[in-house]
């Protein structure tokens, strides 16, 4: 078939290519970065990488004591007394002792007494009872963990 002008059949014009830009890669990378930042923030809160206070971040509060540090106590007039709380027992000078007897001995010490409490898998009630008795007698104490070697101080004034 020939056109009326006699030149023959015209070829159709080439179609324009449609260019589609994909943004999915950038969006996925952005979502991954946000998730990683959120994960780092949550890990930081859990492990106590930042925040206020001296706590370990567990929120229970039973492992920390409030009060002044041992540097506030005059070391020259200080008598160090050591007690270990093992389970529900109080060990003083390698002997089991009742809490009342221990507080009396600590109160009778020459100078200002500083009790070093070592937690050897103590029950919470035994530790609380000892700290309450020492606070009532206005005797300073320092908590020391048998495993970690760390200490926390309290001064009853």
Report on this structure.
- There is one protein chain.
- This protein is of the alpha/beta class.
- The protein has helices at 24-47, 99-107, 124-136, and strands at residues 78-86, 89-92, 95-97, 112-120, 140-145, 151-154.
- The chain folds into two domains: 19-51, no CATH class; 70-154.
- It has three helices and six strands.
- It has a six-stranded mixed β-sheet, with helices on one face.
- α3 links the parallel β4 and β5.
- It is rod-shaped and about 125 Å long.
- Residues 63-73 have low confidence and may be disordered.
Task: List the main descriptive attributes of the protein structure presented here.
157 residues
Chain-wise SSE layout:
Blueprint lengths: L23 H24 L30 E9 L2 E4 L2 E3 L1 H9 L4 E9 L3 H13 L3 E6 L5 E4 L3
Parallel strand pairs: 1-4, 4-5
Antiparallel strand pairs: 1-2, 2-3, 5-6
Could you say which overall geometry the principal axes of the C-alpha atoms support? rod-shaped
User: How is the largest sheet built, in terms of strand order?
Assistant: 3-2-1-4-5-6
Helix-strand sequence: HEEEHEHEE
Percent of residues in beta strands: 15-25%
Q: Helix/strand/pairing class, anyone?
A: alpha/beta
Percent helix, as a range, is 25-40%
* Main sheet attributes: strand count, strand direction, barrel closure: 6 strands, mixed
The overall pLDDT average reads 74
Gap between N and C termini: 114 Å
Number of strands: 6
How many distinct domains?
2
Number of helices: 3
Instruction: Please compute the radius of gyration using only Cα atoms.
Output: 36 Å
Unreliable stretches: 63-73
